[in-house]
Design goal:
Blueprint lengths: L2 H30 L2 E7 L7 H11 L6 E17 L5 E11 L9 E4 L9 E5 H8 L8 E4 L2 E9 L5 E5 L7 E7 L4 H8 L3
Length: 195
């Protein structure tokens, strides 16, 4: 056999081996490391904020492999009042427990989603911001919803009139979970929910 043929075969074997190792590493990373998002419809299950808190406590020991999670419900439409302009507008209210950005209502235009420890804050859509205050740059503006006063922490891109606010208790309708790794992600969430 010619020397060039032997070298070519060895190079081919090395290249194939490297490709297999690289592919296996990519699959392992996808299966075990890269965050995977799973959504679940919780209507009719009576899943509550207390259930989510228990899952968070279980995950403190690493049992569930959670990165982030959020539960939310769509409340009835209500009047939102701008304290500074005196304008009011009807908006759909979405109450969220956990990572508000997982509720998936749109791209953040300005500000941020806020943190539960910040107290009463809200995130509004650009349509609601424009109707109440005439602009989307309304961070820090006070809004009132019934007897609750909130500060705008962020504005999301949407032509719907929506206000997202933190919730501390109650039943959720939707759940979004970000898990460590995509391996059996749906099954892990179903087991977590007790299905």
């Amino acid at each position: 056999m010619k020397k060039e043929t032997v070298i070519f075969r060895w190079l081919l074997v090395v290249l194939l081996s490297v490709s297999l190792v690289w592919g296996a590493a990519a699959v392992w990373r996808l299966w075990f490391l890269i965050p995977c998002r799973v959504e679940a419809d919780c209507r009719g299950r009576e899943t509550s904020v207390e259930d989510i808190r228990q899952w968070e406590e279980q995950d403190d020991q690493g049992a569930l492999g959670l990165f982030r999670l959020a539960g939310w419900r769509i409340d009835r439409e209500q009047q939102v009042f701008s304290v500074n302009t005196g304008r009011h507008q009807s908006a759909r209210i979405i109450s969220v427990y956990g990572s508000m950005e997982l509720a998936g209502q749109g791209e953040l235009l300005c500000g941020r989603y806020g943190l539960p420890l910040e107290g009463d804050f809200c995130v509004v859509t650009e349509a609601l911001a424009r109707e109440l205050l005439g602009s989307t740059w309304i961070l820090g503006e006070p809004l009132q919803l019934g007897g609750r006063r909130m500060t705008v922490a962020g504005v999301i891109r949407s032509q719907e009139r929506i206000l997202l606010m933190p919730m501390e208790e109650g039943v959720i309708q939707q759940l979004a979970v970000e898990l460590k790794g995509c391996g059996r992600a749906r099954e892990r969430v179903e087991r977590m929910m007790g299905e």
